[in-house]
Design a protein that fits this description.
This protein is an all-alpha fold and 257 residues long. It has twelve helices and no strands. 57% of the residues lie in helices and 0% in strands.
């Protein structure tokens, strides 16, 4: 890949401010919405890292870059949406307000078909297309352009809607979204070796925590295996993870999104 990566900031998606930073509150709903914001910002940085580096690839970069794009799509695409739907359902049950998060589901459907087009294009290189000769950067960026606005709208809307659910939590009937989230089992797919080595780093290595909002989130997510997932695991496929926007410490790498 070219050593100089020119900025293309006019097309990059803006990061989302966490509700905790914006309001100074630390109640469970604000913290939970802030955690969701951090996850969504990792997806945004992943999008930006793809968009910013794609024009500077050499043919020898294509295979690794496509694998990186597939990992990002797997994180932010259908897999992540199914996970959030489970959380939405649990929160709606806790509030007693069925359908209160239907707006978020509708926002996702707006870009669903275009995300599928991106998925099929990327996966075609695992089956019958040659990455070095057939990969078309213009085609990739065109597909990214199609999902950019509706994807960002969804990612920015969800934390606001989750924080707004705090109005249903009362002294008589308290609701803790952090506990509800923890009570939902992680999907079996995410426990597989394939997912751990080929997908998880696309999320963790796009989570800038050293400087974002003054570094207040540098210890999030709280996990004993975080260092393993951000440092040791990426060594197995370091060719693809060189495109991530952050290093294993959570420090942003200039020019990578």
């Amino acid at each position: 890949m070219a050593s100089e990566i020119p900025s293309n900031r006019d097309k990059l998606l803006p990061l989302i401010t966490t509700p905790a930073y914006a309001t100074g509150k630390d109640d469970p709903f604000t913290l939970y919405a802030s955690h969701i914001t951090l996850s969504h910002n990792a997806f945004i940085r992943g999008f930006n890292s793809i968009y910013q580096q794609a024009p500077n690839l050499t043919a020898s970069d294509h295979k690794d870059f496509i694998s990186y794009c597939i990992a990002w799509y797997t994180c932010v695409g259908e897999d992540r949406f199914r996970e959030e739907i489970r959380v939405f359902s649990a929160l709606e049950e806790a509030t007693g307000e069925r359908g209160i998060l239907d707006h978020e589901v509708t926002l996702h459907t707006i870009y669903h078909d275009d995300m599928q087009k991106l998925k099929h294009y990327l996966l075609s290189f695992e089956h019958f297309r040659n990455p070095e000769t057939d990969f078309d950067v213009s085609r990739l960026l065109s597909l990214m352009d199609m999902i950019a606005h509706p994807l960002h709208t969804y990612l920015a809307s969800v934390p606001q809607s989750l924080q707004a659910l705090s109005r249903f939590s009362t002294l008589e009937r308290p609701i803790d979204p952090l506990k509800i989230d923890r009570s939902i089992d992680i999907s079996d797919e995410k426990k597989t070796i394939n997912y751990i080595f080929n997908v998880w780093p696309a999320w963790l290595l796009n989570m800038e925590t050293e400087e974002f909002e003054g570094g207040r989130w540098k210890d999030w997510p709280e996990s004993k295996v975080k260092k393993v997932l951000t440092w040791l695991v990426p060594l197995m496929n370091k060719g693809r993870w060189r495109f991530s926007s952050c290093d294993w410490r959570g420090r942003w790498r200039k020019g990578r999104g």
